[in-house]
Design goal:
- The chain is built from 10 helices and no strands.
- By secondary structure, the chain is mainly α.
């Protein structure tokens, strides 16, 4: 037992020195679960994972952060440090979505970035970037939808989707506008349905 404990101490020190995650995980697996050093080894691996995730963010590769965080222990995945890294990675990816004008993607990433206990500066930056980019486009789409005649309902549905994203990002500024457009979609849809029903009835032969 003493021999095993000494080897476990050595493994823990090797993990704490750092290195490739695959190697560190392999060293962790070699620490017997029956020994108290197992918990120390797990904590050391978690620290290495968090450090690598932080480095990935600084290096401009946020896309690998979620995969790294998945290597954390269940306990550490719920930690403030992990939540912050996840939120910052989502914010960085969301800014790419905004640049590409992929609004659904940007909205998803924003919701992920806001899942952290405290709203980070990166989440606020993404929210601001999304609102500034999408707000004017939504207004333009709303104006165009009012002039649309043949596909007005489809146009309004597109506008409603844009305002739904904006309302999720900034409820105070866009929730009312979203509800107004939503009611317009519902009203127009109902009137078109009624008109179609009346037209079908009018074409039916009298009995």
């Amino acid at each position: 037992p003493r021999h095993a404990s000494l080897w476990a101490d050595l493994r823990v020190k090797q993990i704490e020195r750092g290195g490739e995650l695959l190697l560190l995980e392999a060293l962790y697996e070699r620490v017997p679960a029956s020994l108290p050093q197992k918990e120390q080894a797990r904590a050391a691996v978690d620290a290495a994972v968090l450090k690598e995730a932080e480095s990935a963010l600084k290096a401009g590769t946020p896309g690998i952060v979620s995969g790294l965080l998945a290597k954390l222990s269940e306990k550490e995945q719920a930690s403030p440090a992990a939540s912050r890294l996840k939120a910052e990675a989502a914010s960085a990816l969301g800014q790419v979505c905004v640049i590409r004008r992929d609004w659904d993607c940007a909205n998803t990433r924003l919701m992920e970035s806001l899942s952290a206990p405290d709203e980070s500066a990166s989440a606020l930056a993404l929210k601001t970037q999304l609102v500034l980019a999408l707000g004017p486009l939504a207004e333009q789409a709303a104006t165009a939808a009012q002039k649309e005649r043949t596909k007005k309902l489809d146009a309004l549905k597109d506008v409603e989707r844009l305002y739904a994203i904006l309302a999720a990002a900034d409820p105070e500024a866009f929730a009312k506008k979203h509800e107004t457009v939503k009611r317009s979609v519902s009203s127009l849809s109902a009137s078109q349905h009624a008109a179609k029903a009346a037209a079908r009835k009018a074409t039916q032969p009298l009995r």
